[in-house]
Amino acid sequence: MKRTAGDPPTNAPGVLALVEEAIGADLLDAEGILAEELHSADPHVANILQHVSRFRGKRLRPMLLLLTADACGGIRHEHKVLAAVVEMIHVATLVHDDVLDEADTRRHVATVNARWNNETSVLFGDFLFTHSFHLAASLSTTHACRAIGRATNMVCEGELSQIRERGNLDLTEETYFRIIGGKTAELCAVCGELGAHYANAERAVVTAMEDYARSLGLAFQIADDVLDLTGNEWSAGKSLGSDLAKQKLTLPIIRLLATAGEPGVGEIRQLLAHPDEHTREKLAPYLERSDAVQYSVDRALQLAATARRHLECLPDSRSRRILAEIAEFAARRQF
Amino acid sequence: MKRTAGDPPTNAPGVLALVEEAIGADLLDAEGILAEELHSADPHVANILQHVSRFRGKRLRPMLLLLTADACGGIRHEHKVLAAVVEMIHVATLVHDDVLDEADTRRHVATVNARWNNETSVLFGDFLFTHSFHLAASLSTTHACRAIGRATNMVCEGELSQIRERGNLDLTEETYFRIIGGKTAELCAVCGELGAHYANAERAVVTAMEDYARSLGLAFQIADDVLDLTGNEWSAGKSLGSDLAKQKLTLPIIRLLATAGEPGVGEIRQLLAHPDEHTREKLAPYLERSDAVQYSVDRALQLAATARRHLECLPDSRSRRILAEIAEFAARRQF
Questions:
Q1: Residue B44 is nearest to which of A133, A139, A160, comparing CB atoms?
Q2: Contact: A149, B127; criterion CB under 8 Å
Q3: B120, closest residue in chain A (CA to CA)
Q4: Could you tell me if A142 and A150 are in contact, meaning their C-beta atoms sit under 8 angstroms apart?
Q5: Which of A123, A136, A139 is closest, CB to CB, to B159?
Q6: Shortest Cα–Cα distance, A217 to chain B (Å)
Q7: Which of B93, B119, B129 is facing A100, going by the closest CB pair?
Q8: How far apart are CA B167 and CA B242, in angstroms?
Q9: In this complex, do A124 and B160 lie within 8 Å of one another by their Cβ atoms?
Q10: Do the beta carbons of residue B108 and residue B237 sit within 8 Å?
């Protein structure tokens, strides 16, 4: 079979097949809503929308929302609408991230800033943000608007902190976790919350699902940060090493700096302070002599375990078992 | 009295005094809500919020919303919340505009991109957008979320069209009006709609108020575009000539090109195609020999007259009279 740009790598774990079997039809419905919403009478905007639809990703957030719904009592129409909403918000943050990172490709496709320009990216991200709120407001109550407004606001706070801390070689683990808690985990958390809430789960279960998805989001981001440092660009489907280029310290680097003795630590700081296109290779030998990568993977796995514990309040079900597997997958993923 | 950065020019028309008298206390309440909402536990974000609060503008949108409410039956708590929401959205679009325009100052204050950087501006604009939606979702129904989501989405479409048309020296009046209809008039229109809707006005009145505010928004933008070409930087409180620098054709330039005969039109096209810091001065003699500025002002005044006609379905009241004056003011304003 010929590979096309959006295909996951052939070693994609079996969890995706399980997801497909459990909620494949619902994910398709959500995709249908997304596709239907993402049209525009303006041919230019329609053109960009068409381009961006090729950023076909892992659909992690819609999966989380729909599986949580299923595990908490059943998927309703609201869940499918909200799955489209969270994916739209996620794509909006990606489009703006690509401006910030000056990235050229995203899932093997030219970024909006590369294909058009930064102005178009900024406005198109805004277009997606505002459209997602409009769609969320099509539900009968303000619950989703409130939850999504709050979560996306915290995503922005996390990203603003990250920008401010750029170049800070003394970044602490605590601040790192605060940043990724905002920029990544909040949007996951709201997927758990909305999945459970709109399935009429009781309050304690809603909170547990929110906590499950938050822990999973943290694990996912740590794995992403490890990948940026040690991964393969083809299977990741995007430019790597961008954290180093932008002087964003991530968990493996924080650990590396904390544990490397002299003279290594001085050399590493020099490399980090003056990044170039070879920084990733130059750091590799230091990382090999260190426990930094394993330490980070272990933290991700611990968070995955925490996530799984939050599932214990649910009755056993296929969707609950898949949620447990997704947590593990998020921590171990290679793409 | 010492002038401070945020003061309006001393020739500010008496309409502002009338607004102050009619709804000064309500505007203050809305400002209070805005100030209360725009805080952050993160000291960096709090710092940017503090800085941006100095972009104290004309508060046109909150005024429109509150005066419409008053003219349609009375100002309620929801109106004050929504006045804060629309102002927050407006500031979000300004912050992103300043990135797009590479502007250094805004109301005599350094822009976020100049004071921090573009990344911070993009994310901070997103922070304001998402926060405004969160605040809109604090009301008891989804009506405002839906209306605001839709309007802001059309603002983005208008701005995206504007970017695409940059450098198009053959831009038509029709496309110009479609662009400003999105980027400026929609957010004004939603102020009229929300003001009337939340005052429990009947459907025909709600539509009339939306149309009033849309026409006013168009008049306001034409006046802004004339100002960018002919205004004084101090009284405008921002860098001028940016439309020329960014090769955005506005109504006076479209008219100038349509009416200047050869060889003038060729010279003007040359100036527009290769903008530099003196383009505004170099165009001045061509504008003086043309009716382009007067033509544009006349269009703005016609739109103001249309806006006033939409007020006729309301009973006479102080607020209705002020709304009529604001339409005139929007078209004639010098700042």
A1: A160
A2: no
A3: A160
A4: no
A5: A123
A6: 20
A7: B119
A8: 13
A9: yes
A10: yes
Ranges in chain B, pLDDT < 70: 1-13, 56, 237-239, 334-335
Q: What is the mean pLDDT of each run of 10 residues along chain A (335 residues)?
A: 37 78 95 90 86 80 97 97 96 85 74 80 92 95 95 93 93 97 96 98 98 98 94 72 90 96 92 93 94 96 98 97 95 77
User: Per-residue pLDDT tens for B143-181?
Assistant: 999 999 999 999 999 999 999 999 999 999 999 999 999
Looking up tokens 């004004």 gives B188
Q: Which chain A residues are Cβ-neighbours of B161 within 8 angstroms?
A: 42, 44-45
pTM for this predicted structure: 0.89
For residue B135, give the amino acid letter.
L
Q: Which CATH number fits domain A16-330: 3.40.390.30, 3.40.50.2000, 3.40.50.720, 1.10.600.10?
A: 1.10.600.10
Q: How far is B125 from chain A (nearest CA, A)?
A: 9
C-alpha of A183 from chain center: 9
pLDDT at A14: 86
Q: Which tokens hold the place of A165?
A: 């801390």
Question: Which residue ranges make up each domain of chain A?
Answer: 16-330
Q: What is the pLDDT of residues A99-123, one digit of tens each?
A: 777 777 777 778 877 777 888 889 9
What are the C-alpha distances in Å from A240 to residues A91, A94, A285, B330?
19, 15, 18, 50
Superfamily of domain B15-332: Farnesyl Diphosphate Synthase (1.10.600.10)
Residue of A122, A139, A166 to mutate, testing the B interface (most B Cβ within 10 Å of its Cβ): A122
